[in-house]
Design a protein that fits this description.
The chain is of the alpha/beta class. Helices cover 19% and strands 30% of the residues. It has a 4-stranded parallel β-sheet. A 3-stranded antiparallel β-sheet has the order 5-7-6, with no helix packed on it. It is globular and about 40 Å long.
Amino acid sequence: MASVDALLMGRNTFEVVAAFDAWPYDKPVFVASNSLKQLPEGFAGKAELICGSATEMLGTLHAKGYHNIYLDGGALIRSFIAAALVDELTITTVPVLLGGGIRLFDTLPGSMNLKLVSSQLLLGQLVKNRYQFQRETQA
């Protein structure tokens, strides 16, 4: 997280984090939502609403001086990947088999090639893999 300038999370992720006992972030947080008109009371100075397409939100964040953005939230991540706006992807595997749930990558426009950059064992059981997207170069 040291290289991250700001966090951008979806509304659903924000609602989960907002229920924590303490605010866990010391970096600027932006909440992506086209339906919220304002954040709940008590979040002024902690988070800011942002809306629009992935490209528009990224442009807004860049204009504010933020360039290394940490994305959190399934639908938000999918929209940024689909728009080819994600350079790196970190996936941490937790050793639990789920019988259901929402798939993270079910609505992507097609297959995408990734290059493994690093792999790390955490707490003796979690595996954190960091990938870079391999983009086709146009001649």
